[in-house]
């Protein structure tokens, strides 16, 4: 195996200093502090960010980050966190301490079901959660605790069953679960109409066996159509 040329070093990602961080601080139209460190070749979230823990929004998307540190809990004002397009396999339990968080984007990573901590259910203020383009095969039951959730992205994962707790989320208006290996419906729409008086408003893209008994009793919600996206909405990646 050949040696690297003299004077060359293996690429370890860009070093981010406090000075760099301060240069990338912006103010949003509503007066919030937003730190934009997207597309900077970052492999490890720099600890110097702790000097800016009063920030409201952080964009660390499109980097090479594999690990989210426990000290993320110290960002108590954080309302918006974008970690999409990295190499993250799991989130820390401390993510649940971000009580002010409204928007979380962890799409296009290597996140597995096991990598979603139970503490995620403690993000009671969360409005938007994007976990699309990952390796999730089951949606954890504690997602049902996110009662303020309006948008949920689970597209391009390994999900085979539409879980009951997704259908029970009271405020969800956009649900994108497209391009998952969910089996197609065996029975056509006409036969469903004969069996269910509400079926005229229903178009299901899942097997009846893949839905719980309670869901079948109630009838499948009308918004489970067009890849489980809500009517008059576009998929948000």
Automatic annotation (TrEMBL):
Gene3D superfamilies cross-referenced by the UniProt entry: Ribonuclease Inhibitor (3.80.10.10)
Domain Disease resistance R13L4/SHOC-2-like LRR: 59-225
Record-level GO cellular component terms: cytoplasm
Upper classification of the organism: Eukaryota, Metazoa, Chordata, Craniata, Vertebrata
Keywords: Leucine-rich repeat, Repeat
Keyword Repeat among record annotations: yes
InterPro entries, per the entry: Leu-rich_rpt, Leu-rich_rpt_typical-subtyp, LRR_dom_sf, LRR_domain-containing, LRR_R13L4/SHOC2-like
Record protein name field: Disease resistance R13L4/SHOC-2-like LRR domain-containing protein
Domain of life according to the entry: Eukaryota
């Amino acid at each position: 195996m050949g040696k690297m040329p003299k004077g060359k070093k293996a690429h370890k990602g860009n070093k981010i200093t406090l000075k760099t961080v301060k240069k990338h601080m912006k103010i949003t139209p509503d007066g919030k502090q937003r730190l934009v460190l997207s597309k900077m070749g970052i492999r490890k979230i720099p600890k110097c960010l702790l000097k800016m823990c009063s920030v409201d929004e952080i964009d660390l998307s499109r980097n090479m980050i594999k690990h989210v540190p426990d000290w993320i809990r110290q960002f108590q004002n954080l309302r918006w966190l974008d970690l999409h397009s990295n190499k993250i396999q799991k989130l820390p339990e401390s993510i649940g301490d971000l009580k002010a968080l409204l928007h979380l984007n962890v799409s296009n990573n290597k996140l597995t079901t096991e990598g979603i901590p139970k503490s995620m259910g403690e993000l009671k203020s969360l409005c938007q959660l994007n976990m699309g383009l990952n390796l999730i095969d089951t949606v954890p039951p504690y997602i049902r605790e996110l009662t303020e959730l309006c948008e949920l992205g689970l597209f391009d994962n390994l999900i085979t069953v539409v879980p009951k707790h997704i259908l029970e989320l009271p405020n969800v208006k956009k649900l994108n679960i497209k391009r998952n290996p969910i089996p197609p419906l065996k029975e056509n729409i006409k036969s469903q109409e004969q069996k269910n008086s509400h079926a005229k408003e229903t178009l299901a893209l899942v097997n009846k066996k893949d839905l719980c008994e309670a869901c079948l009793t109630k009838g499948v919600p009308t918004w489970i159509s067009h890849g489980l996206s809500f009517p008059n909405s576009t998929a948000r990646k």
